[in-house]
Structure formats: structure tokens, C-alpha cells
């Protein structure tokens, strides 16, 4: 499957379906069944989402279901609990995910290492995942960092080969907001893109993140957003 990202059509709050090409339709949870995973992938095709974001264990099935549809298969590692895997474990898992056919990979990073001054270890951890050969999105957990730490985290992630910068791994860390996205966009080097993540549930919120410069939105509320059945603004109780 191609990892290329075509330029989506223009978006508008007045046309919620125009947001679909920017959304990575996310469902990563304990106990998900095969039928539920297939339905999730079929929804990604039906609504025209950018990708189906699935757990690594379901990547082979997602690849089969989505083959030829133009919808990407994305996965994640060291997630949803972030910063608990060894670097060797991450690198091995990244290779396995890539070999299974995933197009993109979101990764948790070792924020504790960065905050401890272990910058080489922090960067090497990311580089080991990047070596798998598919675009990597680095979840930077911005609210946990000081301004100086944020700058270093972004620079080190890019030095390690990150293709995308993300503000956070989930809404438990940060509700995605235009200020964080604008910060990442402003610091990103040429060719490095930004994905927004964290309780993205409303149309106006989604548009504000795209206006700030995000090119992808990670959310489990994609269907309600593009059908206009969800809240107009962020629902802060949602995952």
C-alpha cells in the first residue's frame, strides 16, 4: 500500500463531510472483535477518511480489508500507555508493523528521559522506530514539558527522522487546540507535518486545528464530526 498522502480537497465547517480526508479514524481498545475491526475499516472507506488507525495486532486484517480502497492503514506503538516499552522492543515492533503492511506509525516517546537530560537516548528511541521505513508520527505530550523542553523535544524528534509531530497521545494529556498546533507548525522544518490528537469531537474544533496548520486529525469521533451529529465544539468528556 502506498504511504503517499494526496492533498485533500478544501474543507469547511459548513460542509462537515469535507473534513473526512483529514481524519484518521481511530479505534484502539481492549476486547475489540474481528467483526468490529472490519466494520471500523469499512466505515473509513464509506466516509472517505484518510486512514483507519488500528492496534498493531489487527494491521494484517486491516490491510486485507482496505486493499485497493485508497484508505491508509495506520497503527501505534508504546500506546495507549506511553513511555513503557524498551527502545529495542519499539524498534522490533515497528519492523513487524511495517512488514505487516501498515502505511504509517504513531509512537509514544520517552518524555521522562528528555526531562532527565537523556537527550541521546530520547532521540535514539525515535530513530529506532523510524528505521522501520514507514512515516512516523511522534506524540510529544506537550503539556508535560516546559517551553525549553518542548523546543528540544521537537528538534530531537526531527533530527531522529520524524515525519509528523503530534501535540499529545490522547485527550488524557491534552485536548487538541490551535495554540499547540500552531506552535508545532511554526517550529517544524520543511517537509515535517503536524497531526492533532486529543478529544477532537466537534466540527468547529476540527476546523480550528486545520486552520492552525494540522494536516491530519486523530479521533474516534470522526463519524459524528463528518455527519454533523456530534457537538459543534469540543466535548471534553470524550476520549
Question: In words, what does this structure look like?
Answer:
The chain has about 240 residues and is an alpha/beta fold. It has a single domain, classed as Alpha-Beta Barrel (TIM Barrel). Helix content is about 40%, strand content about 15%. An 8-stranded parallel beta barrel has the order 1-2-3-4-5-6-7-8, surrounded by 7 helices. α1 packs across α2, α3 runs parallel beside α5 and α5 packs across α6. The radius of gyration is 16 Å and the shape is globular. The two termini are about 30 Å apart. The C terminus is likely disordered.
What key attributes describe this structure?
alpha/beta; globular; 239 residues; 38% helix; single chain; 8-stranded parallel β-barrel; TIM Barrel
CATH topology: TIM Barrel
Kindly report the average pLDDT value. 93
Main pleated-sheet profile: 8 strands, parallel, barrel
Strand order in the largest sheet: 1-2-3-4-5-6-7-8
> Superfamily at the CATH H level?
Aldolase class I
Provide the structure class.
Answer: alpha/beta
Low-confidence stretches: 233-239
Q: Total domains, how many?
A: 1
Helix count, per DSSP? 9
CATH class: Alpha Beta
Helix content: 25-40%
In whole angstroms, the N-to-C terminal distance is: 29 Å
Task: Let me know the number of strands.
Answer: 8
CATH architecture: Alpha-Beta Barrel
Strand content: 15-25%
Shape: globular
SSE succession: EHEHEHEHHEHEHEHEH
Query: How large is the radius of gyration?
Result: 16 Å
